[in-house]
């Protein structure tokens, strides 16, 4: 068991390292380096060369990678090219703002979708099922910026309950942000729920068709008990990866939603930094997103391990078959 | 209905929706269940036997319905029951044990919780002592520890015992067993059947057992109902039906059943035939596995000879087949093949690195006929491929050769244009054989090729294989878990357990004078039609353990036995 | 291989929606009543009328004409990019699964690492550096989707590899590429087809999103995503300018999703369970 977790952890670290590697060298491969960016197109070659020396850009690329990686591990991503402030400070502010809309969206979205999915799956072929399935299909077909636009129209313009956009920018206070998180969070719930509902529905249908579900029903159990006690715990396993991908996507880049609502989170920071070509910030965002992706996947793996007794003992099958033989003897 | 009659099925017809039409699964089925007696429902796949059995629990598959007739359990029409009484009937009055307990037990729940839940649903006491009592009843070892186990932590036999404990926990009046031993090996099968018999007597239940295996039914059922394509063929006391069958179909079924006794053993030992394959002390290990899958494997196959390798799952028998075909790495030892001109070729290493001639000479036929053929290619295509790869026929000759091969395996040239989905299991297996023959091999490796087939089809495929061996002078390595199947085809038999050879002897010698305790318990556990007695019910408690250092000892007549405790001393 | 009359109503509706959108996009220059980029300052933000069925936008451009032409770019990019991503992804996935062991392990790690970097970030950066020409977009989107396709194909290939017909081919000593081509690919074609249909729906959404964010087509080229971005400030005044592209874009994606679901069901590939990756 511990060894299993250790292996997964090591794999995650390798993935994260590779991701950081790709990010660093992809940025290196872009035409024009930081020095040229900073000085603009009209800079003389000498000025650029001096700048390079100051920034340490003429050092070996591997040395710079090692230095950057060493900084990244300790949370130091250098300074922003535009504002001159520390990258990690800017990053954390934006990330905490994103968490403010993402965490409620994740909690509500996952809970709601799982219940709806099980419900639709257990009533396969009924109007409840068709209703939920059609709504899910439409929800995944409408882009988030449309959902956001419609929500603004309905709940901010026609019925002005929530603010349409955040005006405060990155320095906005918590009291200013709180009413503004509702609409973005709803948009995110709609965007992620469809996939989870569909996966859970499909998995529930498979679960109900298994022999153990039939056996449980023919033991004289109620359908409700068969569904929640026998089918649901195993049915959630194939849905976990779908959930983890959605969560990683939510935390990593809610670019569109934040841009529509002018919400000062990670996505907005990303889009602004792309416009200003603020490479240190973009590198940091990429690494942070990769970290989120890897951690969420790791958590999903561990949850699967907790939910499925078979996975827990898979690696010790040798020992198990021997001990069961001894028990028979 | 007499007083001891507990259930009656009258004029039952069941059908299901298949697109625009309704397909009848069962028609005109009549039978009664009596307390303390066992009825066996026998039939091949598609006979509707499981569907009929499950109607006793008021269960139909989605899309199925009762068109006519009634199912009555203690005066109640099962299909007219309201949900609550139906739940009381299910698991309370009528209990089910499904085919494969590995699939029938919920993987995410502990054994104890599943047992307790059944008792709770029927308002019975469900304390730990009751659970332990139940597990004791089915003779599971250390029941107090088992309560906290998950189903996958148990062996197949143990899982089936838990399923039985669960079924009898509510003291049901009727026990329905749907192919209860099909997924088990022979030794465990014998023990589980003995347990069922004992429980029937102790608890006074009526038992309905569904099986494709006449032997199983013969050993436990008082009456038997033979079904075919949803209809009754014959119904009567077991001894009468088996000894004096009135219907032709029943006679065919009985004739096709593999047996250990009373079948002629092909005695065509030809000591002058040249050796085709020789393995010496072969060790096989899967990549990075801590233990050897096979160790110290020895075999010699003569031209035109069939050697069977027999063992339970996990005995390493299929691994031997993979290694000879170049699909698993041999870690140590030697394996060689002699072609007809006497040249010696190594049979070690991956297939891709062997010379063309060696690859051609060794051909495989597979266990699962469904997966053996590429579903996207026609039968003709599948057979033409080895012809092309090994250059056995030019492009122009190919269609004629394919036609000839199809005819040789008992299909017609018209099959060349069909795709696998249009064939039955037996026909697919014949195509698999034709594909292997296309390469004109010296050695045919048949890996459990009849396991998924009905007995009558199995008998036909075995006959075909034997005919080909004779007409083409093929050598055959026949892998099987079933001693009875092997008896009619093999010249020599190698018994394996835990990756090691336990005993190896000419077929007649092995059946008449088995020396190793494991071989003996295998032979004793075989149940065949006509057997009314079950083998000793403690069969699975006598697990044979092998001494890893024991040598194989030659005791003459080509008979070799592993020198474990009890192998050479007693007879 | 696929018979139309066996398909469900939903699938047929989906295929019809997609087909219709494609036909309209191809014939757009002949169908559009006005030049989609011709401005008319006197007639800005007009409501619906006989001359402008869906009214005009803030520059007085005809909304109907812009909507009819607005799918061309997104469809073209989606078609080319999806094809490229599915072809490359299939090759990588099938080869990784076939060779197994370290090839598979290494490929999986690299793909996972690429998936860990947010797709939008990569796309935005590539577009902002190399411009938003058709080929840059196609390349960027393919790069983003190849790992996901490869992962799915790898998963679909593995069960095929353990079948008897692949084993037989290996035992015959056939080389890996003929085995992949003859035995493996025909049997994962259903998965690939469904994969194509569903990737296409995401790529359409992605392209529109890029346009919406200002990284897709350049104004004044008509494009649904861009139209929504330009016209949504006038949502209350002239709603048709925003709603028309929303409806057409959503119908196309609903159509693609219905088609993918239907094909999946018809071919026995459960697509819902895959989720976004």
Strand content of chain C: under 5%
**Tally of DSSP β-strands of chain B:** 22
Helix content of chain C: over 70%
CA distance, first residue to last residue of chain B? 52 Å
Number of strands of chain C: 0
Oligomer: heterotrimer
* Rg of chain C: 22 Å
Distance between the termini of chain C: 27 Å
- How do the SSEs of chain C run, as a string of H and E? HHHHHHHHHH
Helix content of chain B: 25-40%
Radius of gyration of chain B: 26 Å
Low-confidence stretches of chain C: 273-277
Q: Summarize model confidence as the mean pLDDT of chain B.
A: 85
How many helices of chain B? The count is: 21
Task: Provide the low-confidence segments of chain B as ranges.
Answer: none
Structural class of chain B: alpha/beta
Reported for the largest beta sheet of chain C, the result is: none
Largest sheet of chain B: 8 strands, mixed
Mean pLDDT of chain C: 83
Shape of chain B: globular
Number of helices of chain C: 10
Describe this structure in words.
The complex is a heterotrimer of chains A (329), B (571) and C (277). Chain A is mainly alpha-helical and 329 residues long. An eight-stranded mixed beta sheet of chain B has the order 16-17-18-13-19-20-22-21, sandwiched between helices. Chain C has 277 residues and is mainly α. The radius of gyration of chain C is 22 Å and the shape is elongated. Chain C contains ten helices and no strands. Chain C is 71% helix and 0% strand. Chains in contact: A-B, A-C, B-C. Chains B and C meet through helix 13, strand 16 and helix 15 of B and helix 7 and helix 8 of C.
Labels describing this entry:
heterotrimer, A: 17 helices, disordered C terminus, C: 277 residues, mainly alpha
Summarize the structure.
The complex is a heterotrimer of chains A (329), B (571) and C (277). With 329 residues, chain A is mostly helical. Chain A has helices spanning 2-29, 34-39, 45-55, 61-73, 87-122, 127-141, 144-158, 174-177, 182-208, 211-217, 223-235, 240-252, 255-260, 266-276, 279-307, 309-313, 317-328.
Write the layout of secondary structure elements.
The complex is a heterotrimer of chains A (329), B (571) and C (277).
Chain A: H1 2-29, H2 34-39, H3 45-55, H4 61-73, H5 87-122, H6 127-141, H7 144-158, H8 174-177, H9 182-208, H10 211-217, H11 223-235, H12 240-252, H13 255-260, H14 266-276, H15 279-307, H16 309-313, H17 317-328
Helix pairs in contact in A: 1-15, 5-6, 5-9, 5-12, 5-14, 6-9, 7-9, 9-11, 9-12, 10-11, 12-15, 14-15
Chain B: E1 5-18, E2 21-34, E3 38-42, H1 49-55, E4 64-73, E5 76-77, H2 83-89, E6 94-97, H3 101-104, H4 111-121, H5 128-137, H6 143-146, H7 156-168, E7 174-178, H8 186-203, E8 206-211, H9 214-220, E9 223-228, E10 231-237, H10 238-243, H11 248-256, E11 275-284, E12 294-302, E13 306-310, H12 317-324, E14 330-338, E15 344-346, H13 356-361, E16 362-365, H14 369-372, H15 379-389, H16 398-408, H17 425-438, E17 443-447, H18 455-472, E18 475-480, H19 483-487, E19 492-497, E20 500-506, H20 507-512, H21 517-525, E21 552-554, E22 560-562
Parallel strand pairs in B: 3-8, 3-9, 6-7, 7-8, 13-18, 13-19, 16-17, 17-18
Antiparallel strand pairs in B: 1-2, 1-4, 4-5, 9-10, 11-12, 11-14, 14-15, 19-20, 20-22, 21-22
Helix pairs in contact in B: 7-8, 8-21, 11-18, 15-16, 15-17, 16-17, 17-18
Chain C: H1 9-31, H2 63-69, H3 72-99, H4 101-116, H5 119-130, H6 134-161, H7 164-171, H8 176-213, H9 224-231, H10 240-267
Helix pairs in contact in C: 1-10, 3-4, 3-6, 3-8, 4-6, 5-6, 6-8, 7-8, 8-9, 8-10, 9-10
